[in-house]
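Aim 2 progress. For 3-ketoacyl-ACP reductase, the working sequence is reproduced below.
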Amino acid sequence: MADRYATFTRTGPGRFLTRRLGLPQPAALHRWSPERPAIEGPLLLMTAGDIPLPGLHESLTRTGTPPHTGPLGSRRPAAVVLDATGVATVTALADVHAALHPVVRSITPSGRVLVLGAPLSPADHHQAAAQQALEGFVRSLGREIGRGRTVQLVRTPSASAAEAPLRFLLSPKSAYVSGQVIDVDDTTAAAAADAEAPAAADSAARPLAGRTALVTGAARGIGTAVAEVLARDGAHVVVLDVPSAAQDLHRVAEHLQGTALPLDITADDAGERIAAALPDGLGVLVHNAGITRDRRFANMAADRWSSVVEVNLASVLRTTDFLLKSGTLRRGSRVVATASIAGLAGNAGQTNYAASKAGVVGFVRSLAPRALAEHGVTVNAVAPGFIETRMTAAVPLFLREAGRRMNSLGQGGLPVDVAEATAWLATGAVNGQVLRVCGQSLLGA
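Predicted structure tokens for this construct:
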């Protein structure tokens, strides 16, 4: 369903009226397209603290956006990267203000602010305090910067480990991701680099070329969008959904030159049937299938509880365990599960759904380090906020409007926003990350 309020605010009368009344004015976000694949304008590189991160200039250049370190003259920056890895004292936090304060208003609409921080030191509580302060700063700046601009914090031990997150966060593919903290490490980066690369892979343009990707719940909505983006990035896509959705599923598969696999993911033998359909292994497993059966807890029948937990959580655990054990998921494979803001912050009428999605977060955080160490497989999750789908279009008007406006970008996301984040996690750049795709929702942390 179209966001008519956002459309109205972009007209002359709409801008005037909403400005006078102090109402939200959602910006038109610059999302990725073949015609506009990159941010449009210079990238400004700045430093706070005493010791700059070695190799950062070169890593940024490899992302396709060579940085400027001096004055831009009359040009406005489309992105600012602040290297704050050297901020080790409270006093040094003043450098953050000194660097960003003069330029923050000049950043172009749909621009980017990326702060690079260091891992928190367990041996130096002054460094840990100063670095943790960056998280509060980033989340707060994201709330107020406006005009479709986003702000992120990447904690990294090295420039090379930060390179993949920088490539994603500095691109239009991250348009609906803001106020996030992403932790990277050299171990994951090295494992991703050392993973057995498919012969057909051809660099950043098609990072999933030569891989097979399975997307559950792919017959419509977010699942279809995920399949489309994975196919765009080079993967051969196997789309899975319940047999009753077979007609739509085959239509998606035909459109993407992929393979349809009609299957109830809750079936006891679902793992075996997936493994049998993929004898050559699986490069990417996307757990997208999910249902809602909303009721307030006092009115919730047992079958409403159990059906949601079974589809959204139990099937994820059971299928992943089998595919790891069978070797269908192997060194270099990626698992991306779908959590939800509801699982992080809770939501009235969704105790079953929130429990299942919080369980997905626990699954990721526990399995990720072991899966990487034992199998060479990364495990991550996306946590969507309010996304414009047929399901949210059925939400009553006032609740729908609240969902759209209660985030820093003042609008709902699109299925492609979740798909872009999923595709990035499918490259294996990070491990154990729960990436919120919510426009920096006002709900939860």
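The two ends are 28 Å apart (CA to CA). This observation will guide construct design in the next reporting period.
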